[in-house]
Amino acid sequence: PAGKFLVTGGAGYVGSVCAARLLEEGHDVTVVDDLSTGHRDAVPPGARFVHGDAAEVARSLLAEGFDGVLHFAAKSLVAESVAEPASYWHGNVTTSLRLLDAMCWHGTPRLVFSSTAATYGNPDRTPIPESAPTEPTNTYGFTKLAIDHAITTYAQAHGLAAVSLRYFNVAGAHRYWGERHSVETHLIPIVLQVAAGERDRVQIYGDDYPTEDGTAVRDYIHVADLADAHLRALHHVAAGEHRIYNLGNGAGFSVREVIETCREVTGQHIPSVTAARRQGDPAVLVAAGERARTELGWKPERPNLGDIVNDAWAFARDGHTAYARSRTD
Ligand code: UDP
């Protein structure tokens, strides 16, 4: 049945794709975003948009009666989180606590929260199950883990039905919605910027890792698959429960494999050079995905790296302008 949902951070990458998918499923969607990193024109048509701080807006807006909140609004740059902890503790933790308070006050029954593989830190085994120790190695990971703990206790005490989804490496695009960061740090968009001639070359951060080709291995998951896990999570959790799921592809790809796939998809040469390791980067981060598969009945429908890169490339070249055109036609 269709529901009424508040999407915080719905002008950002994952939030806008989830908002679009919710609308496609016939739900009523309100997006709240302060546009600090998001884009007004990334909010899908059909969603109501409220500009402002997620917690502030939720405090008054949730009085309308919502079926749930999908909470994406967050600061998410690892290096920045280490340099400016206060803005991450307040921006992520304080805001989320005030959002939880508003939900309890208004009796909003459901929450889906964007957590992260960064809560596990440097794992002692791979693939990483949800039961792995949580030992973040940076402020960003600490803030997301703190919010996860807060959600557990709020769910128990106040009967909230909550799910935290721990994302591995989100990539790709869904129709007109994709990745548009002003400061780009992620591998696939950077490699595609090289393919598009917007950068000279890609730096490979370390080729002496204990992996098959010496470069770091990550679990890249298609953003549309990730969004579908959110839709399922909304309907699979009971009042008073807080469930945690890792969301990954189940397969790892090395930095060299990613660059090679981007060369194949784009037909461009894409110069690369080896550089020093990036501080704090583990060799391998791959999700154990059994829990999401058995409990949510979810599995990635687009696990092929070529398909993920192809969608990211289509968006990078044309997605945003095609969207602007579609609105004026
Ligand atoms: N990486 C790289 N060059 C870049 C950006 C990233 O070699 O310009 C590597 C990075 O060291 C990591 C992988 O690509 O091993 C994925 O990095 P990304 O920042 O996309 O995601 P993360 O896994 O750090 O969340």
Automatic annotation (TrEMBL):
Superkingdom field: Bacteria
Catalytic activity: UDP-alpha-D-glucose = UDP-alpha-D-galactose
Gene3D superfamilies: NAD(P)-binding Rossmann-like Domain, UDP-galactose 4-epimerase, domain 1
Pfam families: Epimerase (PF01370)
Requisite cofactors: NAD(+)
CDD domains the UniProt entry points to: UDP_G4E_1_SDR_e
Protein name, UniProt field: UDP-glucose 4-epimerase
